[in-house]
Amino acid sequence: QVRLVESGGGLVQAGGSLRLSCAASMTSFSSYSMAWYRQAPGKERELVAAITSTSYTNYADSVRGRFTISRDSAKKMMSLQMSSLKPEDTGIYYCNAKTYGYSYWGQGTQVTVSS
Asked: How big is the CA angle at 56 (ends 6 and 48), to the nearest 5 degrees?
């Protein structure tokens, strides 16, 4: 059974930083592609950043240069370092894991950026 637990969300002023973490339970973590998605109020869920099993990374244009995704296979953890935060970064951030057609989600963590 795959379980993903996010942490690190909170309230921060514009220009500040936050670090999100995702703790994973699966035994073959290193074979999964991992990603962060977010959903703002009234909007659809969108991809923020992704990292493959070989640590290739991809970012949404809106966060490139401000956010950094990383993974630690030994600890079964994925992180998202967010800097220069903007009010439009506000939303629920979800951890996602994908492998061989299966997709798993965490429960989400709230990030609120005040202006």
From this structure: 45
